[in-house]
Design a protein that fits this description.
Shape: flat
Structural class: mainly alpha
Number of helices: 6
Largest sheet: none
Distance between the termini: 60 Å
Length: about 110
């Protein structure tokens, strides 16, 4: 893993994400359920999880280097707000859409 961290990262990313998705398919877990939604969010975070694991395996200096990129001094407050709010808004929107609530809101607003 230390000789070719890029290949290890890609393999680990696919292993984490696809293992969760295959388990969801095998268990017939719908994304419309709370368990399915949480599992899907964790599976989508596969690249981030893999990056932390690879950095830990390679050595302590690499994890410090990886986490240095998250330093608040390197990001403007406006960019940080967009980076935090936009994905959260997308998850909320997709969740509401999956549950059919968006359609109901649209029908109610259409009658006004």
């Amino acid at each position: 893993m230390t000789k070719d961290p890029v290949r290890a990262f890609l393999a680990l990313t696919f292993a984490i994400s696809w293992a969760i998705w295959f388990a969801m398919i095998a268990g017939s877990v719908s994304i419309a359920t709370t368990t399915g939604l949480i599992s899907n969010i964790v599976a989508t975070a596969g690249p981030s999880i893999a990056a932390v694991i690879i950095a830990l395996v390679i050595g302590g200096s690499e994890i410090r280097r990886l986490l240095h990129g998250f330093s608040p001094r390197l990001v403007s407050p406006r960019s940080a707000l967009v980076a935090l709010v936009l994905p959260l808004g997308m998850v909320v929107h997709c969740s509401l859409n999956t549950l059919g609530i968006i359609r109901v809101i649209g029908m109610v607003l259409g009658r006004l």
